[in-house]
Amino acid sequence: RLASIGHDIGLVAGKTYEESIRKKERIEEEIHRLKEARLEKILRRPGVSYDDIAMHEENTYLSQEEINEVEIEIKYEGFIKRQRIEVERLKKIERIKMPENVDYKKINGLSSEIKDKLSTIRPLNLGQAARISGVTPAAISILMVYLEKFRRQG
Questions:
Q1: At what angle do helices 14-36 and 64-75 cross, to 10 degrees?
Q2: Residues 121 and 132 sit within 8 Å (Cβ to Cβ)
């Protein structure tokens, strides 16, 4: 997965990089084939492995490592998608700056504990606030509403 970055900075030789690209293509082709045959739904079931659905077709071109990757990609596809969405959401809240003069004690809806922690730590953005122990997603939502009101009053 990091071969392209390694290649770009000169740590991965051309031949190794090309093989990693071919490996990735074989994995993607097999995933596509399984999806077209609707076998990926079966593979997602607990206890079902690639060997169970391969039916001894001509997939011997895949190495065991590639077969493992195919299984992982299919079995965890939903989880991976949710995590990517969460990462994008976190990137967005990282960009929402907290004004320096916020008086957290005056924000309605936050617990006293969260108000104290925010007042002490003084996060620079919502992303930092979200990483403070005890600050809940609900508290982040309250902060977002507060910040929107704060910006409008500007």
A1: 50
A2: yes
pTM: 0.61
- String of DSSP letters for the chain: --HHHHHHTT-S-HHHHHHHHHHHHHHHHHHHHHHHTT-HHHHTSTT--HHHHHTT-S-TTS-HHHHHHHHHHHHTHHHHHHHHHHHHHHHHHHTSBPPTT--GGG-TTS-HHHHHHHHHH--SBHHHHHTSTT--HHHHHHHHHHHHHHHHH-
Phi and psi dihedrals of 91, rounded to 5? -60, -40
The pLDDT tens digits of the residues spanning 34-83 come to 999 999 999 999 999 998 887 655 556 899 999 999 999 999 999 999 99
Structure confidence at residue 7 (pLDDT): 82
Rounded-to-integer distance, Cα 132 and Cα 22, Å: 43
